């Protein structure tokens, strides 16, 4: 069983990640080296903006019950 997981680790470390990440690792430019980080930040920013617009649309529709009836002391 141990050799199975070592085989999976070897596949990812020495085959998949090596050929996909080494061009970014050895790039001359800082921007090229961090292009994956920039892509993730752009995706996260787009998702955040989309989520905020959806929350604003829901808030503007007035569907939520905002009365404070959950506790008697409120």
Strand percentage lies at under 5%
Helix/strand/pairing category: mainly alpha
Low-pLDDT windows of residues: none
Apparent shape: elongated
* Main sheet record: none
Number of self-contained structural domains: 1
Q: How big is the Rg?
A: 24 Å
Number of helices: 3
Question: End-to-end span in angstroms?
Answer: 59 Å
State mean pLDDT (0 to 100 scale).
87
- Name the helix and strand elements from N-terminus to C-terminus, one letter apiece: HHH
Features:
single chain, 74 residues, elongated, transmembrane, DUF6341, Uracil phosphoribosyltransferase, membrane, transmembrane helix
Written overview of the protein:
The chain is mainly α and 74 residues long. The protein has one domain. Helices cover 74% and strands 0% of the residues. It is built from 3 helices and no strands. The radius of gyration is 24 Å and the shape is elongated. The model has no long low-confidence stretch (mean pLDDT 87).
Please summarize what this structure is.
The chain is mainly alpha-helical. The chain has helices at about 1-25, 30-35, 35-60. The protein is about 75% helix and about 0% strand.
Write the topology of this structure.
Layout (H helix, E strand, L loop, with lengths): L1 H24 L4 H4 L1 H27 L13
Keywords: Membrane, Transmembrane, Transmembrane helix
Pfam families: DUF6341
Organism: Maribacter orientalis
């Amino acid at each position: 069983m141990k050799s199975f997981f070592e085989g999976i680790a070897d596949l990812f470390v020495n085959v998949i990640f090596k050929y996909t990440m080494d061009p970014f690792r050895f790039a001359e430019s800082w921007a090229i080296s961090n292009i994956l980080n920039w892509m993730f930040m752009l995706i996260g920013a787009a998702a955040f903006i989309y989520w905020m617009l959806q929350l604003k649309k829901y808030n503007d529709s007035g569907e939520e019950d905002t009365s404070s009836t959950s506790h008697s002391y409120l």
